[in-house]
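TICKET #2291
ISSUE: user wants both folds in one file
ATTACHMENT 1:
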Amino acid sequence: MSRAKVFPAEAKSILTKTGGYLSAFTHTLQPYKGCEFSCAYCYVRALPVQRMSPERRPWSNWIAPKTNAVALLADEARRGRLEHARIFFSSATDPYTPIERRLKLTRGCLEVMREYPPAALVLQTRSPLVLRDLQLLRAIPRMVVNITVTTDDENIRRALEPDSPAIHKRIEALAALKSAGIRTQATLSPLLPCNAERLADMLDPVIDRVIVDDFFEGDGAGGRRSRQAIETLTELGYAAWTQPGYADQTLRCLREKLGAARVVYSQTGFNDIDWVQADV
């Protein structure tokens, strides 16, 4: 059960202009502030959104639904602002954080984009709840679903992602999405300690591509925003997995097992907008 206290609020806007790490996208879309998944490596906990958290609650202990998110997006759509938009949904929360099961803000936004498709859409989550919206996703062109799979080891997952869905549930979600004809990417973001060959075997039948990221490229601050995860892994005896270049060996293994074209790296991989928009 989630520990998060809910702070509903109306937002002034729903599409945020982007750049920097997600330079190929024009906007991010966040139907929630905060998150109920308590991932130790989450870079957002070091951003101003957390420092301004309601009642100064710690990360993953609060969630602020944007109650008018769907209405705001529908207004943008009617004004023609989605037609050329390349949207990353979401970069600072999980669009399927557990409260979405009840509030359906993400679902409502997808319904808008079914009627007014953007130029490109990437939906980023770690939750099998995404399968609830399978038929909606199939109706949106030029879209990809990314599911975060950081490791093949449940002990590592429990240590760093204690409130997140089990790895096998994410693999099953990827399989269902791919079977439905939806393009899928597994985002190893950040890569955590794993057996690379076993992880490759798990991913091979259920993904179109894999994006490998690490603490130093992925958190936008050279690893400084990933301090809690790095400390936890060091305490668990995985200090070698916290050093610059630690992902290189796994990256090579995945490319050998899955094919170089199916395994991309970090910012370059996330920003391959031509692949997202390609006709399939």
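ATTACHMENT 2:
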Amino acid sequence: MRARNPLHHAEPLKNIYRRKKQDIAARLAEFGEIWNTGSDQNIFCELAFCILTPQSKAKACWASITRLSREDLLFRGTPDQIKRDLHGVRFHNKKAEYLVNARDLFLRDGTGSVKQVIRAFSDILACRDWLVKNIKGFGYKEASHFLRNIGLGRELAILDRHILRNLLKLGVIENIPESISRARYFQIERAMQVFAKEIRIPVSHLDLLLWYKETGEIFK
């Protein structure tokens, strides 16, 4: 699965990291503040964002979450009301239903227990498994993305198409699988963790670095 010497391809990436390290660290600190000082509603916004992201652009998804929150639909709207605000989000009908299902799981009358549920886990991997099993629309990528975006699970890999494409170019993996099982996800995640350790870039930094390399910005 792994090329013989991915370190051979890493020097240009390390050069970019030297320029962007402070920006990446600042962004991760912002994510941490969401968990430390944010409300349950703030945490749920991040969860909802990650439900929307599969096969859709991150900025369009976050714009939809911002709009739904402003219009008081994210916490009180019906699927039909929500889907009309999912501009640029693919599979908006199904994702509107997923948002309401997640809201019903965590929140009651606009107040919630998202933090309480997450705090019940001493093991972030067990927490991620629970999220995947209980939130419709969540796979391991989405659950990892959510946990990272609230300042948790910094060793978790967010294996979206941007990351996988770059791991392939770097020689960390030999191919991009058409679908990723739980075991396959863990296998690639471990390869990314080993690579990150070898080039002395934390996994959470590496994720945002590869995202920046692909898109030219450090977003979410």
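RESOLUTION: both attachments delivered.
EXTRA DETAIL ON ATTACHMENT 2: The chain has a mean pLDDT of 91.
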